[in-house]
Each structure stands twice: as C-alpha cells, then as structure tokens.
TrEMBL record:
Species classification: Bacteria, Pseudomonadati, Bacteroidota, Cytophagia, Cytophagales
Alphabetical UniProt keywords: Cell outer membrane, Membrane, Receptor, Signal, TonB box, Transmembrane, Transmembrane beta strand, Transport
Signal peptide segment: 1-20
GO cellular component: cell outer membrane
Organism from which the protein derives: Marivirga salinarum
Protein name in the entry: SusC/RagA family TonB-linked outer membrane protein
Length: 973
C-alpha cells in the first residue's frame, strides 16, 4: 500500500510539475468578414497585464502554465474571449467581428490612460476618420463635424474658403472670455486663435471681431486624422483643468502599421457655388416704381440703363463664380516589428465664389513609432503647413466703402460700376464704394507657415502577471508665423482723406507643453479587480508677438509700407505660463462596477495670485448591469447606468489684472498716462461644475444601441467689466460678477438593421438640446460689447433669470426680448449602405429647429429700397413695422449635409495593372446640396461677430456659404 501511495504522490507531482512548466501557445487573429490577418491585435490573459501582440501575419505566441481565458481585441472589432490550456494542439485561429456599436472602442479616461467605451462613466463622443472624411471632401476639421456629434453647436462666421467656424460644446461657457474648446493634436496643445488682419483700420467702420478672420484649426488637414474624441463638459474634461471650461477636442492623427509599405493616392476635384441668393435689387422695376421709390430724377438714369447695358444683377456679378476645388492627398504607411511610420502630404486649392478669393493649403506630416527596447517606446509627430488665403471684403462696415455686401445693399441695378476702356472704375453713385473695384484691385490676404511637433516616450518600469508600472512623457510645440496684408488703392472713392491704405501684420505664436506621468495597473482578487493609478504634472507656455504696421497717403501706384506719407506701428506681447499636477484612481470590478476619482490643480500667470493653485475634482461611476450574475435578459448585450461630476476652470484674458495705459503726445514728447480700465487684484478664474448622468443600452446581438445623457453645468464667477465711481479715477474694472447655468439632453440611436453578404445597412440618429440661464448678475443688465448693434437694431443682452443667448430690442419704445439664438433642438440622421460588396452609398441630414437670427442684411436692403420682396405683402408688412422684431427671423432648417456614392472596382478589374495597383475606388459626393428653411438670408448658420463671444445669430452681409460637388479617385499601391 505504501508503494501505491508513493506512486500516486509521484504521479500527482508530475502532473503539477507539468502544469507549472510554461508552454508556448501559438495562434492567429483574423477578420471574420474576409479572413485577412489583423496586425497589431492585442492578446492578453484575462485578469492580468501579461499578453502579446500579433505580427505581420496576424500571428502571436503566448506562454501558459495553466488553463487561461485570452482576451483578444483590435481597434474597430468586437472584443472576444476564448478559453485555452497549455496542452492544446492544432491551429488556434481567432476570428473577430466588426464592432458596429463601438462598445470595445478605447477612449481617453485620463491624461495617460484609456478605457473601453463600455466601461465609461461619461458621455465621450468619438468620430473616426471614416466618419469624418469617408463620405465627402472636407475643407476643415470643424466643418466636417456638422451634425455628427450630439451636444455641439457649430456656426460659420464666414463662408470664405479657409475657415471661419465657431464650435461650442454644451452651450455658452463665458460672456467675455473663450467659448471655443481646447484642441490637442497628438498630445500638443494647439492654437485655434482668430487673428484679425487690421482690415477695420482701412475705413474705421467696423470692429476687430467683424473682420471674419479664419480660425487656426483650419490648418489641420482632415485627411491626416485617425480619430477625434470630444470631452464635452467638466465631468469628462476635469483632468485638463483650467483650459477645459469649454470642453476638450483630442485629435489623434494616423500612424503606421506593421507590414509592407502601402501607398494611398487620392485625387478629388470639386466645384463650389453659392447656396442661395437673396435677390438684392431684383424687384419688378418699372419707370413708375423707380419714380415712387427714388424720385422722378432717377427715372432718366433707369431708362438710360435699359437703353444701354441693361439692369445688372450685382449679386450674381459678385457671388456668382463657380469655384474650382482640387485636393490631392498621398500617404505611405508600413513598418517592421520595431519601427512603424506614416508619412503623408496633401495640397488643397480652393477658389472662392467671389473673384480673387481662395485658399491654398499644403501640408506634410511624418509620424514615427519606434520600440527602442522591449520596455521603451518612442513616438514623434511632425506636421508642417503652409497656407495662403485671399479672404476678400465682406461683413458689416457702416459705410466704409469696402464690404461687397454692404455696398451692394445700396447699389441700384441700373448703376454701371464697370471700368471704362482705360481701366478706370467709376465712383458708386449709391454707396460709399464700388464693389467691382474692391474685388479687382484691393487685397485682403494672409499667409501662414506653421510647424507642430509632438513626441512621447513610454518606459515599462516594472511588470508581472498582476501588475504593471510605466512612466510616460509627452509634449511638443505649436509654432506659426501669420502674415496679413490689406491694400486699398488711393483712388478708391472712400479714401479721399487717407489716399489709400496698407496694413501689414507680422504675428508670431509659440506654444509649448510637456507632461510626465506614472501609471500603475494592478490586478487584485485573482484578477477580478483592476486598479489603475496615475499621477503627473503639466507645464504649458503661450507666447504671442503681434506686430501691426499701417500706412496711408500712398504714393500713386505703390503697394508697400515705405511708399507712404503716414505710418503707424503697434505691437502686442503676451506671455503666459501655467503649471498643474493631477492624480487619478480608476477601479474596475469584473467590468461590472467601474469607478474613477481624480483631481487636477493648476496655477497660472493669468491669475491674481500667480502661485495659488486652483483645484478641479472629478468622480464617476458606471454599473454594467448586464454583466451581473442576476441579469438573465438575453435580449441585452449591455445595460449600463452611469453618473459623473467634474469641475474645470478658465482664467482671465491676458492683461485683465493690470491697470491700462494709453499713449500721449504732449508738446511732441511721447509718454503714457493711466487709462480708464483698472486691473483687479481679486480676480479668480471662471469655474464650471457639471453633473452628468446617463444610460447606455445595447441589444439584439449588438445590432441596436441607445445612449441618453442629461447634464447640468454651472459656471461660477464669470469675468465682466463694471463701472466705477468717478472718484476712483477709472471708468471700468474687470472682476467676477456673474453665474451661468446650462442644462441639456443628448440622445443617440445606432442601428445595424441589415447585415448580410450582399447588403449592409447602418444608421445613426442623434438628438440634442441645451438651455441656459444667467443665475447671478451683480451689475445692471447690459449688452456685451461687440455682441450686437444696440437695442434699436437688436443685440445679445445679459440679464439675470434669462438665457445668455437672448436677443433684446425695442418694441413701441419698450426694451423687450425679441428672440433667442439658442436652437430648440437639433437632430441628425446618418445612413450608410454597402451593396453587393462594391457599392457604398451614404447620406447625412441635419435639422436645427428654432433659434433666431437678427437679419440686418435685409435691414440694409430695406433702407435702400432694394429688397426683392418689398412689393410683396411680407415685405410691405416688414417695412411698415418700426420695431426691432421686424429683423428677427426663425433660423430653423433641414439640410442635406453630405451625400456620397462610391464604387470599389473588383479584383478582376484591378488585376489589369499587373499588381501595380491593389485597390481602386471612384465616386461622387456633395456637401450642403439641399436646404429647406424659411430664413431669408444667405444661410441660417451665421455669425457676423466672429467665432468668440456671444456672436451667434447676427447676420450682416457675410461671405455667402456654398454648396459643393466632388468627384473622387482613390488608389492603393
């Protein structure tokens, strides 16, 4: 018996020893749809940090000492778990299905960590490269987001090529400060500034925010983008601290993939035309009507025109061009086990719908990933952009003689403004300027050279099956030189005193940021609890050097500053430094309960006490009920409840802390005196706190998903100016004087109703709205500077208990609310179809219901008697109304944002190139081809006051928006 017991013990020990020895298991990860290998897929033992990555053939090797469950994941595919054991033999092939619902998409949860979407405690919107640019050609990144994400309101401040777009996430977040989100590209904090050209100084007839400058995110080529993540509120963006009050947009550009080098070449050719005309001057003119409107003396001029050139449609003359658009893109990607690369170049050349306007952007990018050792990874991202823009002269100008639309509003169609046989342009008898002379001879140009450099390094400091410690550093700089040039000839009729104008801007921007993190992943209780801890710091600098030169009294025919009689030079220097540190703890219990707790602390030279830290906490929890043992509803793949809270900040604008000075000249001696604005030494940052809660549901084998999010955001200590008693010696002081609340609802429904070999249909429906209210105001109600044109014509108006987007005016002498620029709601409907594997058809419809515009374009043509509907009942009713509400219009619309049809040539057709070409795709698409609206202006999406402040809903002679048609050819080599 003893020998038998001894034999059993030996056999048991041998079995134990056999399992104690690691065995190498080999396998392959492929796509279930076409069987192609997935390069770079991740294979991890469940409940541990130990794993492998697939190679160029989709193969992997992993060591096992006992039976394990392998978790296999790859971007764009549904995660899969498979049980294996060390004694397994034969080929292990793992097939991954496409992730239609994005449940396993990895998104940012901190500055150095990420989490699956199915485990998020916040509503984080993501847009892939295919969603961004896969349907049609996109001129800029922000233009491409229209209607694709809930909670975003996008408004164009100019239809000119080269940008001019304002993006707001979950409503207005500041009255006088920044309302644009923070943009981060590959870890680099980048500028989205609008820098005016000084055009206003040519006539002194408008303000800087009315110059319709382009916004600098337009420099990023959309074709370079791999993915965009949008943190819409403080509950998600708190970890970004004092730069995140208006949200954060995180952009990841394309990177290399292991494998042989692939080259992609795309050629797009398009045409751009005005979306709609408003019919300036197109009344049914007769001699009797001319006499009635303009008097009997004008009839002779009218008759002379009829007997000569005829009536002229100046709207068609100015805005009637068909702009040619060409966009050429080439990229190469590939790599080995240690090094991956992506290089790309693009050239976009876009003509405007106005002669001598246009935009050219040349972009070159190189992204490199290199594994120095098994534990050290290094990446770089380099992007150089050169762009040239001819923006023309549009917008409000108060009789300055330069704006096409402003002068067109008063020009009668029988006035002949064309040059004579010697090239001399006549003065405009009806307005301050001849639009044709300005179009043909004046210049409003900008040239930018920009370099964005990012880098990161990841070091694995310590690793076991149950824990993982790494250090990560990333940073970079954003540097650009923006040169602007404005020229108005001395013979322009409104330049009688100045004798011409030249304005030259030399603007230099240099921003840097660097961040360091420690991240520790640890598994407890046999892998059922995962803890992710991270701590780190952030250091940011912003430097601006804005030099502006202007000259008048030009020597005839000369176009340089030196050839002038009067010159003026101005320079603005700004330097900002910010430092912050943060800590965040995440806990995941078997993908059932996921909780996050974190805090960010920032200090800034923009604050009154530059060494005081301001703290921004965050917390979130998500419950994946469908993962609990008690859940027995097989209909649901996911049923998640989530809630989150967070705080962010926004510091004062540069110079708010200091008393202003003004230049003086006494007896020929230059000096300075105290200005009228007193700095505040008690100024603190504007702070936003947000509570967010929601539900995420996925069912029917991931064919249908629904997301609902409610948020309540409160912004405290808004920075305003208040009047001071004359005894102080100052007129105004900048300090914290108001609070603001935004509440809203965001809904999204994603469906894949049909999926078979010959027909695939996916659909997304989005719905969202926002409501705002001024909850505290420690000064009398007021109209913010630069947000309107006075109560007589209408303006944004700040008043406690009212929306921050309300529009005030006068009716029968009383100041009343006449409208609200905030939409009642927005919704979008996106559908994509793949037919017989080779045809792709898709379209996006966007609806905005409600929201008012102040249409002062019509007001000007009414004054001139040239509005096309003045003979109709609606026009007669409008002009007989003396009150502000006659200019308020409903800006609702339904728009076909994008539509496209593509055909992928079958392999048999591609084979005629003898292997030189792998894939060929051809297609046609359109942007903004169809709009249904009762709004009578050029476009219900309008902002005459630029992209900052409370500018939405003001319409004064914009550069009209366009509709575009494209033809596409894409080749892969």
């Amino acid at each position: 018996m003893k020998k038998q017991y001894l034999l059993l013990i030996i056999l048991f020990l041998m079995g134990t020893f056999s399992y104690a020895q690691d065995r190498v298991i080999e396998g392959t990860v492929v796509s279930a749809s076409d069987g192609l290998p997935l390069i770079g897929a991740t294979v991890v033992k469940k409940g541990s940090t130990s794993g492998a990555t697939t190679d160029l053939d989709g193969k992997f090797k992993i060591e096992l000492s006992k039976p394990e469950v392998l978790v296999v994941s790859f971007i764009g595919f549904a995660q899969k778990e498979i049980a294996v054991n060390p004694d397994q033999t034969g080929d292990l092939t793992i097939r991954l299905e496409e992730d239609i619902t994005k449940l396993n998409e990895v998104v940012v949860s901190g500055l150095a960590s990420s989490v699956k979407r199915s485990n998020l405690g916040n509503a984080v919107a993501t847009v892939s490269s295919e969603e961004l640019t896969g349907m049609t050609n996109q001129p800029t990144m922000d233009n491409a987001l229209y209607g694709k994400v809930t909670g975003i309101n996008i408004t164009s401040s100019s239809g000119a090529p080269g940008g001019g777009v304002a993006m707001r996430l979950r409503g207005v977040t500041s009255i006088t400060g920044n309302n644009q989100p923070l943009f981060i590209i590959d870890g680099v904090y980048v500028s989205n500034a609008e820098i005016p050209s000084g055009l206003r100084n040519a006539s002194g007839a408008n303000s800087g925010n009315e110059e319709n400058a382009s916004n600098r995110i337009a420099d990023l080529a959309p074709s370079d983008i791999e993915n965009i993540e949008i943190l819409k509120g403080p509950s998600a963006a708190a970890i970004y601290g004092s730069r995140a009050n208006a949200g954060v947009v995180i952009i990841t550009t394309k990177r290399g993939k292991r494998g042989e080098t692939r080259v992609n070449l795309t050629q797009d050719v398009g045409f751009s035309t005005i979306q709609r005309k408003v019919g300036i001057g197109q009344r049914d003119w007769t001699p009797a009507l001319v006499a009635e409107v303009f008097g009997p003396d004008e009839v002779a001029r009218y008759n002379a025109a009829l007997n000569g050139r005829g009536l002229i449609d100046y709207e068609e003359e100015i805005y009637g061009e068909t702009g040619l658009i060409t966009d050429t893109k080439i990229s190469a990607t590939g790599g080995s086990e240690d090094t991956k690369f992506y290089v790309g170049a693009s050239l976009r050349d876009e003509e405007g719908i106005i002669k001598n306007t246009g935009y050219t952007r040349a972009s070159v990018r190189a992204n490199i990933d290199h594994e120095l050792t098994d534990r050290i990874k290094f990446t770089t991202s380099s992007n150089f952009v050169n762009s040239t823009t001819q923006r023309g002269f549009t917008g409000n100008e108060n009789e300055g003689g330069l704006s096409y639309g402003y002068n067109m509003a008063f020009t009668r169609p029988w006035a002949n403004l064309y040059p004579d046989e010697f090239g001399n342009y006549p003065d405009n008898p009806n307005a301050a300027g001849n639009m044709l002379l300005v179009r043909d001879r004046a210049l409003n140009d900008e040239v930018i050279n920009r370099f964005i450099q990012g880098a990161s390094i990841d070091i694995n400091l310590y690793e076991t099956d149950q824990s993982f410690l790494k250090f990560k550093w990333n940073g970079g700089f954003d540097s650009y030189n923006l040169e602007t040039y404005v020229y108005v000839p001395e013979y322009h009729q409104a330049q009688g005193v100045q004798n011409g104008f030249i304005g030259v801007g030399k603007n230099s921007i240099f921003n840097t940021n660097n961040q360091g993190f420690l991240v520790w992943d640890n598994y407890l209780s046999g892998g059922s609890i995962q803890l992710t801890s991270q701590v780190g710091y952030t250091y940011i600098t912003f430097d601006r050097d804005l030099v502006y030169n202007q000259a008048t009294q030009l020597i005839p025919g000369q176009t340089t500053l030196g050839q002038s009689g009067t010159q003026e030079l101005g320079q603005t220097l700004q330097n900002v430094k910010e430092f912050g540190f943060f800590a965040q703890q995440e806990m995941n219990y078997e993908d059932k309960i996921i909780a996050t707790l974190g805090v960010r602390a920032d200090k800034s030279t923009l604050n009154a006490d530059q060494n005081q830290f301001y703290y921004f906490p965050k917390a979130s929890v998500a419950l994946n009920l469908a993962n609990f043992n008690f859940w027995n509803l097989d209909l649901f793949n996911q049923f998640k409840l989530r809630t989150a809270y967070g705080e962010t900040g926004s510091s004062a604008t540069f110079g708010s802390l200091y008393t202003s000075f003004q230049a003086v000249n006494i007896g020929g001696s230059p000096g300075v005196s105290v200005g009228g604005l007193r700095g505040s030494q008690d100024l603190i940052p504007e702070t936003a706190s947000e509570f967010e809660t929601g539900i995420d549901v996925t069912l029917l084998d991931n064919k249908l998903s629904f997301t609902a999010t409610y948020y309540n955001r409160n912004i405290y200590d808004l920075i305003l100016q208040r009047a001071l008693q004359p005894s102080t010696g100052f007129n105004l002081e900048v300090t914290n004087l108001a609070d603001l609340q935004n509440q809203g609802l965001e809904l999204a429904l994603n469906a894949s109703p049909v999926q078979n070999e010959n027909f695939v249909w996916t659909s997304t429906t989005n719905f969202w709205f926002n409501r705002s209210e001024i909850t505290r105001l420690d000064v009398p109600p007021f109209a913010p500077a630069g947000s309107g044109f006075g109560l007589g014509l209408g303006t944004a108006f700040i008043e406690e208990g009212q929306p921050v987007t309300q529009l005030k005016g006068t009716i029968d002498g009383e100041v009343v609310t006449v409208g609200d620029a905030e939409p009642d709601f927005q919704t979008s409907f996106l559908n994509s179809f793949t037919i017989f594997k080779n045809f792709d058809f898709s379209f996006l419809i966007h609806v905005k219901e409600g929201g008012n515009n102040l249409n002062l374009t019509t007001f000007l043509t009414d004054l001139a008697g040239l509005t096309g509907d003045l003979d109709d009942p609606s026009g007669i009713e409008r002009t007989s109304n003396p009150n502000t509400d006659r200019f308020i219009e409903d800006a609702s619309y339904m728009r076909l944002r994008e539509i496209a049809l593509y055909y992928r040539l079958p392999e048999s057709a591609v084979d005629v190139f003898n292997g030189a070409v792998n894939k060929i795709k051809i297609g046609a698409s359109g942007r903004n081809l169809w709009t249904v609206t009762s709004y009578t202006g050029y476009d219900p999406e309008v902002s005459a006051k630029g992209g900052t402040g409370l500018s939405t809903g003001l319409d004064v002679n914009p550069f009209p928006s366009t509709k575009q048609v494209y033809f596409h050819l894409a080749l892969e080599f």
